[in-house]
Amino acid sequence: MTDKTTQTLSNTACLKAAQALLARRKNNHRGEMLAADCRPTNLDDALAIQMATVKENGNNIVGWKCLVPLNPEEMVVAPVLEDTVQQGETCLVQATEPGKTLIEPEIAFVLGQDLPAREEAYSEQEIDTAIASCHMALELLQRRYAPNDDLTFFDKLADCLLNQGIFIGPEITKQQAYQAAEINIDITTIDADGQPDSKNYDGKHPNLSAHTPVYWLINFMRERGVSFKKGQAIITGSYAGAIEVPINTTEIEYKNLGKYQVTFSAL
User: Fold this and answer.
1) Cβ neighbours for 237, distance < 8 A, ≥ 6 positions apart
2) Contacting residues for 215 by C-beta, under 8 A, at least 6 apart
3) Element spanning 55, H or E
4) Which pTM was predicted?
5) What does each C-alpha distance from 42 to 20, 38, 39, 176, 190 come to in angstroms?
6) CA 135, CA 144: separation in Å to the nearest integer?
7) Rounded to whole angstroms, how far apart are CA atoms 130 and 7?
8) Taking the CB of residue 208, how many other CB atoms lie within 10 A of it?
9) Which residues fall within 8 angstroms of residue 207, CB to CB, at 6 or more apart?
């Protein structure tokens, strides 16, 4: 494959950045911008820091987040780190505010076979075949930068675009997932007085298709020599943006697709 990278940071600098960002992730700390000697200034620096973070964390990628770029200067792609994909009745989360956490309602596509990096582009049919199951899912978010007007997209990209992990909910059919351009979503939580508090969202996928970002992701990263593994879960964009919910029991319903309850518990 042709090397198209324009990385300006050294591997040592990428490792320094990765270690700093991992410490924030694990300590649930919001820090300032990275030091100038390890701060990313372009796409390749940011992606190199992502890969250094993966290696420093344990060397395994268990999923990906992506979106077909809405801005050609902003590639929305990030690995999901080992031990951060969850299923079941309870989901462990880092708080974004006292007693609260951030989620994004999405659809996850789970691969049933490897897709190794290769010269030839993968066809949509090949990628469709590789998708073993589709699920209602939540992206778990965590703020790791203090508010700063000077933060750039590359700063955020290097830190995996707020990703804390993925919660995998009930399975839906591939047909349902592929047709889910819009989903009406109800999220019901328990308020401070112990009463149910329901909010409705007229959900719309940013790309008007939940599955087409998977096609983009596989081939964008294939060109960079990245392989995809059986079992990896790919999320492709929120239907309702980032939603702050109490660290408590939450019911999530995708109208006409299904609903489930999950109890968030603080790490």
Assistant:
1) 66, 67, 76, 106, 205, 206, 207, 210, 213
2) 122, 124, 127
3) helix 43-57
4) 0.95
5) 19, 12, 9, 37, 43
6) 27
7) 31
8) 12
9) 67, 68, 70, 213, 236, 237
Confidence category of residue 190, pLDDT binned at 50, 70, 90: confident
Per-residue pLDDT reduced to its tens digit, 197-239: 999 999 999 999 999 999 999 999 999 999 999 999 999 999 9
Give ∠ CA 138-170-70 in degrees, rounded to 5: 40
pLDDT score at 195: 84
Contact 190, 249 (CB under 8 A): yes
Q: Are 172 and 131 in contact (CB under 8 A)?
A: no
Tokens of 8: 């300006």
> What residues does 101 pair with on adjacent strands?
245
> What is the rounded distance in angstroms from the CA atom of residue 145 to the CA atom of residue 63?
23
In angstroms, rounded to a whole number, what is the distance separating the alpha carbons of residues 95 and 264?
A: 10
How much of the chain is in helix, strand and coil states, percent to nearest 5? 25, 40, 35
Distance CA 172, CA 194 (A): 31
